[in-house]
What we know:
Elements (H helix, E strand, L loop, with lengths): L2 H12 L3 H7 L4 H10 L4 H10 L7 E3 L5 E3 L1
Helix pairs in contact: 2-3
Amino acid sequence: MAVSEQIKILCVKLGISVSELARLNGASPQAFSQKMKREGFTPGELKKIAAAANCHYEGAFILPNGEKVID
């Protein structure tokens, strides 16, 4: 699933708009929207978005033995 779709689902579950999430994250809704269109978020930015939404983001590859390769 694309990151932009995950962000939209997050907003629905939190009962806020994407614009509201952008403001919580310290970004303008326009700039945030452009990043969503380009799928241009870095793992660090996604962690910052999660923190602004009072939740946790974990992006990792998980090997069959359970070991994680994280950013």
